[in-house]
């Protein structure tokens, strides 16, 4: 029925999106969802080119970065992806995912994400450890990173002055100040307080 897999995917996604009344959040994960799955590259992938052209503009596209589990993300790579998809991607970040090896638990700070990513993103989802309690540090440090990114964006864009003012009056990080080590220490401090609070609850 369809001349290509990409056109089939886009057609079905568009039809479902319209049938649901074009919701404000509608995520589409392409078959080629990271650079290592693209042939020969994201910008030259016939599949992604067709997806970018055929997919309705209100549909967001999920992307994991250079690899399925990406150690680093850069604005340059995201700019290439945005160009071929004709929209900013939603990053599905597998940095902490351990479903492929449940013997490992990732407790380090959110890192490897270059400053200036937020303007290149339509959103960011964090795929966490399978163990619920082990995700306190990943999510806490992600929040610290994101607050720092918001401060950077607001300081570069006069339209974001309200965000900048809000951050100026908070104790959060300011422009260019994100430090994985400091974020980790903040998370550990709050995690210990959370653990101690839970220990005081009846029945603990």
TrEMBL record:
BP-aspect Gene Ontology terms: glycoprotein metabolic process
Domain GH84 per the UniProt entry, residue ranges: 1-150
Top-level taxon in the UniProt lineage: Eukaryota
Gene Ontology MF annotations: beta-N-acetylglucosaminidase activity
TM stretches of this protein: none
Name by which UniProt lists this protein: OGA GlcNAcase
């Amino acid at each position: 029925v369809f001349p290509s897999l990409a056109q089939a995917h886009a057609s079905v996604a568009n039809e479902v999106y319209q049938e649901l009344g074009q919701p404000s959040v509608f995520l589409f994960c392409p078959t080629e969802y990271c650079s290592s799955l693209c042939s020969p590259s994201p910008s030259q992938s016939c599949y992604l080119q067709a997806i970018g052209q055929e997919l309705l503009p209100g549909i967001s596209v999920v992307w994991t970065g250079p690899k399925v589990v990406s150690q680093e993300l850069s604005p340059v790579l995201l700019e290439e992806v945005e160009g071929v998809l004709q929209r900013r991607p939603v990053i599905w970040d597998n940095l902490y995912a351990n479903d492929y090896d449940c013997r490992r638990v990732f407790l380090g700070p959110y890192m490897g994400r270059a400053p200036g990513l937020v303007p290149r993103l339509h959103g960011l989802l964090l795929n966490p450890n399978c163990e619920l309690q082990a995700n306190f540090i990943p999510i806490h440090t992600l929040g610290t990173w994101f607050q720092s990114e918001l401060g950077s964006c607001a300081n570069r864009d006069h339209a974001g002055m309200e965000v900048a003012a809000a951050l100026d009056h908070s104790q959060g990080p300011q422009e260019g100040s994100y430090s994985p080590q400091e974020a980790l220490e903040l998370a550990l401090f709050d995690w210990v307080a959370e653990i101690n609070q839970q220990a005081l609850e009846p029945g603990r």
